[in-house]
Amino acid sequence: MKKLLLLVCCALALPLSILAQEAPTTVVEKYADRTINGVIIAGAFDVQLAQADGASRKVGAKVEVQQELADKLVFEYTDEGYVRLSFKNDVSKYFTGSKKKPQAWITVSELKYLNVTGASSVVCTGICSTEGDLRILTSGTASVNLLEASAGTLHVEASGTSNVSDAKLTVAGEAVAEVSGTSKLSGTVKCGDVKFVVSGVSSVTLAGEAAKAEVEMSGTGSADLEHFAVGEMTAKVSGMGKVKANVTAGGTAEVSTMGSFRYTGAGLVTGKGVKRLD
């Protein structure tokens, strides 16, 4: 009887031990001799992003992927100077449950473009910068976290259920943020003029400041800008959208019957449906 129990226990333990073994991986490194100005990530990758500093951080890209997927990996350098990561086929079955996603480490020369789609996530280290335009695009369930960057101008587009979280962005000129679906944008932004286009059930939660702000709100979206100081504000709120603002000079707002616009600050915002919080 004891032998039978021992055999049963061993039989049960064997599949668990097989599952516990991690699939062998291979590491591919490229583009240390190139100028990398942007990153395109599609599929399912966990990415660490940084900008070269000339000392400890050198330009280049490295990917760790399961050996059985190495021949399906797309790891290329585009004409625009971007590193692109994806797979030739749908390999999502390899990353279900607790299975580890492919890991990537990318160090750019400067950051002009960041496009993250699918189920990929990007975590940023240090400050990334460009004197020109910085474009950030997310879709699917993708995420960009802890991005600290400076740029001449900024354009953010978040859709699906993606999110750009805990960002710290300094922009010399104009910034535009478009969020839709159930996507989210949060962090701190300092810029000249800014435009927010919020639709669906998406949300924007920001601190920081801007000289002028324009808000276009629709659906059941929300914009929490109570800690985002704005000189002049113009807003159009339709559907059941909600806006909280901090206005230091003045502005106007058009608010639908089901929508809301609430504000604090020394400024005066006029329009039907506008209410002061303090």
From TrEMBL:
Signal sequence coordinates: 1-20
Keywords in alphabetical order: Signal
Protein name in the entry: DUF2807 domain-containing protein
UniProt-listed InterPro entries: DUF2807
Residue ranges annotated for the Putative auto-transporter adhesin head GIN domain, each copy included: 38-165, 174-265
Domain of life from the UniProt record: Bacteria
Pfam families in UniProt: DUF2807
Organism: Candidatus Rikenella faecigallinarum
